[in-house]
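Revision sheet: structure tokens.
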Amino acid sequence: MKKIIYITIILLYSISYSQQLGEYYSNVDKNNKESLNFGIKKPVDFTQKNSVKKDGVILWEDENTKVEVFLTKIKKSNFKKLKKSEWADLLKNKKHNFKFIKKSIYKKSDITYQTIDNFPSNLFTYSTEKTSNTILIVVVEGYYFRVNISSSEDSSNFNNFVKNLISSILFYDQYSDGKREVVGKWKIVKETEGGSKKE
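Predicted:
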């Protein structure tokens, strides 16, 4: 009996956990070769708004949490020429200072290196008295893809939410030439408004 109750609790937890994110928001625009085609799952029950910031793409909010996605073109010629492996080395060694991140955030953040859908990234995590904060920066195809997430919720729920959101990120163009096999969770991306279906 205890085993059944334990399994039921795990199943209920996994169902509620998976419901934090909904369908993909996709920025696929085949007519615009100057844009970055990406997908990220929209948080369930969040209000969607257009970002008012210069390089902001989308803003999602609920009463406790804010998620904002940005796209910034890499303009400096010495950084434009870097290969993916060179960016990986820079980000692993934390030797690149992003202009759009305040110096104070660098000082108080725990900065880690990650690979997000095959591209190098840095994850900045820090807390204030009122909020838990995460900034993800992925360097991909001439862009800094950035997600800012802040919340007044307790840290364990916030950390789970951030982990799920980040693991949902897709960069479609790397699969479009057929050279990279689309497997696992990338196999099917549901068709959404402005999005595309990948099989």
